[in-house]
Design goal:
The complex is a heterodimer of chains A (275) and B (306). Chain A is mainly alpha-helical and 275 residues long. Chain A is built from 14 helices and no strands. Helices cover 82% and strands 0% of the residues of chain A. In chain A, helix 2 packs antiparallel against helix 4 and helix 11 packs antiparallel against helix 14. Chain B is elongated. Classes of the chains: A mainly alpha (275), B alpha/beta (306).
């Protein structure tokens, strides 16, 4: 475990030094604050908790931003070290390969978690201090912060997998961007297209939410927008969440699988990688 | 661990249709300094990777300190090995001392050793500088420092002196010599064979994945039967006499008006010296045995087969 922590620690230190931590935290905080205060304008007229409105806007933003940040942070992890020759050196040390994968993943996820907690936490506090939030508003917000970290971790695991598979840094970068496009944009459009073409309704409305479980970004969206009554009203998903019931815990479980499975595959791919 | 530091038997490594190593039998005795020579692509790095357990040989057996580098104890085995890869580029925003402490932690080496090692490789002034600002020579020296962490019993160095200036090379040789005196086993590959002509106990020549020769410098010199050159300073008048005296034993090459060179088989040179010594007009005699560089070139270009 010491080796895992040593590698994670080095990634974190490197992240602090090259200002990745600072930049990510500032970007997330700035965007979250902007959305929270611009988004709170209509809240007065619909008499809803401003935090619920913030959850809707912020989770929509996170779906784009967090996977991108996570992939950019992780794609270099193994492929980059291989290119610089330091991977060969690292492997000559008393370290198992899975420890390298896990250490890098934990380090990168810690950076993402810190940025998310501080950026979104500060926003939550700012909204809480300046506006009437009501007691019920906090649960969806905290769930959103927590699931954002899980979303970041899922894409960090996917990025680590990409880095373990790709021969070169440039290939890893390209694959990362490709996967981001696929999960964040293409997947939903394709699903929508299929559903529109499916005039006979062979794919029942009950199946759709399960199809969404195939995409970590959609799990996150579904979890945040449909799990809490107050929020789902705003998100326009109240109908959907009534016809289909996937327990929030099950969705979190699915998201956790999206962390564990790519990470396991990354360890496997790295084990087989020739150096 | 009384077993040999390194022992390979009939090791072959194939990548698809490419044979990187073939029928390699290779052993290093405890405390020995083994130099590995061969052109690029001869299989040196592959051999190192197999010894370090980073890749598995296609066939044959490998043992490092008596156990397989692929076995479950291999992780522990690596604590006893220091490795300096070819072309390692330390990058990033950590400082030299932070980088070394990271490697010390991985290896379970005492943290206090880091500052000492950086001093030994002359990086004391740069310990708090970020590694990405280091010059190539400084990076190589940082590589040396990490290799020495935890006082390994076996050092494996892949082209350690490439890219170093003559001063750093000398420093590096001193450092290696110190370790050798302390009883550390050393396996080193290098293009700059002069660096190790005098220090290496044995030299192994690798060519297209096969070992073409292995032995002490003396033995290799003998086996290669490369000619000995005798340079004799003799005026124009004496040159004709000289040619007459030793013409049957050596080829006489005129260098200039003042000296000639006698090229002869290694076992003939004493006989030639006797005859040359008997001549009166000779001023100086200089015997030049073949350099390691010549022997290296001889085996690299095909050895006895040619």
């Amino acid at each position: 475990m010491n080796a895992v922590l040593a590698i994670a620690g080095r990634e974190i230190r490197e992240g602090v030094r090259n200002r990745w931590v600072l930049a990510t935290t500032l970007v997330l905080a700035a965007l979250a604050l902007t959305l929270a205060f611009l988004g709170s304008t209509p809240a007065g007229t619909v008499k809803a908790s401003p935090l619920a409105v913030t959850v809707v806007s912020l989770s929509s933003l996170s779906i784009f931003l967090l996977p991108l940040i996570a992939l950019i942070l992780t794609f270099d992890g193994i492929a980059g070290e291989a290119e610089r020759g330091t991977l060969l050196l690292l492997l000559s040390y008393p370290v198992a390969r899975w420890q390298i994968v896990l250490g890098k993943f934990l380090g990168h996820t810690a950076i993402l978690a810190f940025a998310t907690l501080v950026g979104y936490g500060a926003t939550g506090l700012a909204v809480g201090l300046t506006q009437e939030t009501g007691a019920g508003g906090w649960a969806p917000y905290l769930a959103m912060v927590g699931s954002s970290i899980l979303l970041g971790a899922a894409f960090a695991a996917i990025g680590t997998l990409v880095s373990a598979v790709a021969r070169e840094r440039a290939v890893a970068g390209g694959l990362g961007i490709g996967l981001w496009l696929f999960f964040v944009i293409v997947f939903d459009m394709a699903l929508l297209g299929i559903l529109a073409a499916d005039t006979n309704q062979t794919i029942g409305s009950a199946t759709v939410p399960w199809l969404l479980m195939l995409n970590p970004a959609d799990i996150y969206r579904f979890f945040n927008l449909a799990s809490f009554g107050d929020v789902s009203t705003f998100a326009g998903l109240a109908g959907l969440s009534e016809t289909v019931r996937i327990a929030p815990a099950a969705m979190l479980g699915a998201l956790a699988l999206w962390v564990a499975v790519p990470l396991g595959l990354a360890a496997l791919a790295f084990q087989r990688r020739s150096v | 661990m009384n077993a040999r530091p390194v022992e390979l038997k009939g090791v072959a490594k194939r990548y698809g249709a490419v044979t990187a190593l073939d029928g390699v039998d290779f052993a290093i005795e405890p405390g020995e300094f083994m130099a590995l020579a061969g052109h690029n692509g001869a299989g040196k790095t592959t051999l190192f990777k197999i010894i370090l357990g980073l890749i598995q040989p296609t066939s044959g057996s490998v043992s490092v300190f008596g156990s397989s580098p692929q076995s479950s104890q291999a992780v522990e085995l690596r604590r006893a090995i220091g490795f300096l890869p070819e072309n390692v580029t330390f990058a990033g925003n950590l400082t030299g001392i932070e980088m070394l402490r990271f490697y010390a932690r991985l290896k379970g080496a005492p943290r206090a050793q880091c500052a000492d090692l950086l001093e030994q490789v002359d990086l004391s002034d740069a310990v708090t500088r970020r590694v990405k600002t280091y010059s190539k020579g400084m990076r190589q020296r940082l590589g040396l420092a990490q290799m020495l962490l935890g006082d390994p019993k076996l050092l494996v160095l892949d082209e350690p002196t490439s890219g170093l200036d003559p001063d750093s090379r000398r420093q590096f040789r001193t450092l290696i010599e110190e370790r050798r005196k302390a009883g550390t086993t050393i396996l080193l590959s290098s293009h700059a064979m002069v660096d190790f002509e005098e220090t290496a106990d044995r030299i192994t020549f690798l060519r297209e994945g096969r070992i073409v020769a292995c032995g002490t410098l003396e033995a290799l010199r003998k086996a290669s039967a490369l000619p000995v050159r005798i340079r004799v300073k003799a005026g124009p008048g004496a040159q004709a006499t000289l040619a007459e005296a030793v013409g049957d034993l050596a080829e006489v090459q005129r260098i200039n008006g003042q000296s000639v060179e006698l090229v002869c088989a290694p076992d003939k040179h004493v006989a030639i010296l006797r005859r040359v010594g008997a001549l009166e007009a000779i001023e100086t005699v200089e015997v030049r045995p073949p350099h390691l560089e010549n022997i290296y070139a001889y085996y690299r270009d095909g050895g006895p087969a040619k």
